[in-house]
Amino acid sequence: MKFNPNYKCILVLIAICFFTRVSSQVHDKSWQKIIHDKPDEWFKSEEAKNYAQNVLLYQRDIGGWPKNVQMHHPLSDEEKQKLLEKKKTNEGATTDNEATTQELLFLSKIYRQTNDDIYKTAFLKGIDYLLEAQYDNGGWPQFYPLRKGYYTHITYNDDSMVNIMKLLKALIEDSGLYSIKPSQNQLEKIKTSFNKGIDCILKTQYRQNGVLTAWCAQHDEFTLEPANARTFELKSLSGAESAHIVLLLMSIENPSKEIINAVNSAVAWFEKTKITGLRKDRIYNGVGKIVDKRMIPDETAPAIWARFMNLEDNKPFFCDRDGIKKWKLEDIGAERRNGYAWYRSDPQMVLDAYPKWKERLKKKSLKKHKDELNITVAKDGTGDYVSIQEAINNTKSFPYDRVTILIKNGVYKEKVKIHEWNPNILLIGESKDKTIITYDDYFNKVGLGRNSTFYTYTLLVEANNVVLKNLTIENSSGEVGQAVALSVFSDEVVVVNCNIMGNQDTLYASGKGKQYYKDCYIEGTTDFIFGSATAFFENCQIHSKKNSYITAASTPKDSLFGYVFKDCKLTAEKDVNEVYLGRPWRVYAQTVFMKCDLGNHILPKGWHNWSKPEAEKTAFYAEYRNYGEGYKPKERAGWSHQLTKREAKKHTLKRVLGDKNKKDNEQWYLKIN
């Protein structure tokens, strides 16, 4: 047979077509579709394991992944070597365009089928990456480690932060979506992270002329205000990103008052800004490529929302890469007009879901406990409220009878304020060590000028006749300067069996009222019990974490008493050995220690004048029958006092805090139940 020279060409073409078709079966299917569309049993296949090797290779040492990578594509040896080098640099790790969150879902799916710990380790490392990347204010940047430019902004764009929050929420709820369970310690961090994220979302909701509206695609990581991204992505209100934020808020089982308000406000804004009677039309060329987009009138068209709306008046605008606002889509060039989604319909999902959400809230409200005097707060939703502050806010103002708020065990990451109009409250924890109220504000973080210390509290009491019992109240910011855990400004406040934890300025016992601290553990570094109140500390452990000063009283000149410590035990960290009992914040400071066990960390001199020689004449610092290695009365500062038995009788609990005209069992400080 005579050889046909064209036959070879035909064979080559057939081979090319065959291999192109086989290759396209993989390459034409996106990485996202593989993760979401493949059946469960596929994830135990050799093909899935091969893809998983790439996923592990692309993961940076910090725990995150780069974006826009088709991780199922084969890698050459040279490409693998480059990825090993990039692992160490952490280059490109991000949560943008579903990066990291989608890889974590893949690892969870393959672990469910294989039970191979290599996938579990990578998954948990990825979770740690998300936790590390979060800002203190609760937001996430687009890239972490941080890249210069708009990438550092809190990023709602393309649902970056919402995707993270949905992942964390699924882990907290143990929804079954993820087969890998974090450790208890990591789970607690995840819960804290999620709550911080919700707090950030609430704080970044934009107020337009005092009215809550929606969110921007990016918010400044410091001011939380809307921020610019790329030149054609100017700060604005965003319909699409805002819709997915609201859907997240609506998915929360027991929403707080603030969340409900945020959702209602956003829905009102969606209704206000929806565009009807307008349809997006696309013009295609002969090969199916979009060559033009235009908006045409159509009364039957479903509602749509602009991608970007003016912060001042919600007016839609459009931009070219020159960053100049245009008010019509046709006024920008073809490249941006056709290459960007300027209109979206996502808010319609919120409007469709909203009626059922309202009905669900209504049913929960009908089931809510109606006993106004006995309220329960529980993180898991089994109580009347999930937030301590929400419970306080919903109590009757100036009640005649005691209102008891029982707080179930859990970590409550919130700033709590008992307002002046909320007296007669008993805030009682289920157990002292497991009912934890914590926050992490500190002087420089608050940044409100020279008085920033007083805004850093975790729990603030401004109401009279308040009892705090069986609680841990903590400022968790660490050793970063002034950071208050508990502030008490009011009168007749009892704090019993509580841990009060922090570093500098832990307990601000202030105001002109009277306060009683019994069976408490109080720790700190410098001046960690300070303020102007008349306060009696009985059977408390006072623990110094650093060589410094315990008290810094600022007793007013006309007060009969300042701080009195009776039957307390003063302890310290192992390496702490130079601690003063106190120094005068104001020159009329009064502090007395009676029958207290003083550890050897207390300096022989005992008291410091804070470089105020005049305070030695006006301050009253005294002791009575203390004991322990730190009690050295003969070596005390010459201007301090050792009380006689008669003088000590003036400093009893009843004389310091009580009413001499009432019987002992009628005194306010005994009414702690």
From TrEMBL:
It holds the Pfam family Pectinesterase. The gene is pelA. Keywords: Aspartyl esterase, Hydrolase, Lyase, Signal. Pathway: Glycan metabolism; pectin degradation; 2-dehydro-3-deoxy-D-gluconate from pectin: step 1/5. Its EC number is 3.1.1.11. The active site is at D527. This is Pectinesterase. One of its GO terms (molecular function) is pectate lyase activity. Residues 374-657 form the Pectinesterase catalytic domain. PROSITE patterns: PECTINESTERASE_2. InterPro entries: Pectate_lyase, Pectin_lyas_fold, Pectin_lyase_fold/virulence, Pectinesterase_Asp_AS, Pectinesterase_cat. NCBIfam families: pec_lyase. Belongs to the pectinesterase family. It comes from Winogradskyella echinorum. It catalyses: [(1->4)-alpha-D-galacturonosyl methyl ester](n) + n H2O = [(1->4)-alpha-D-galacturonosyl](n) + n methanol + n H(+). Residues 1-24 form the signal peptide. It is an enzyme of class 3 (hydrolase).
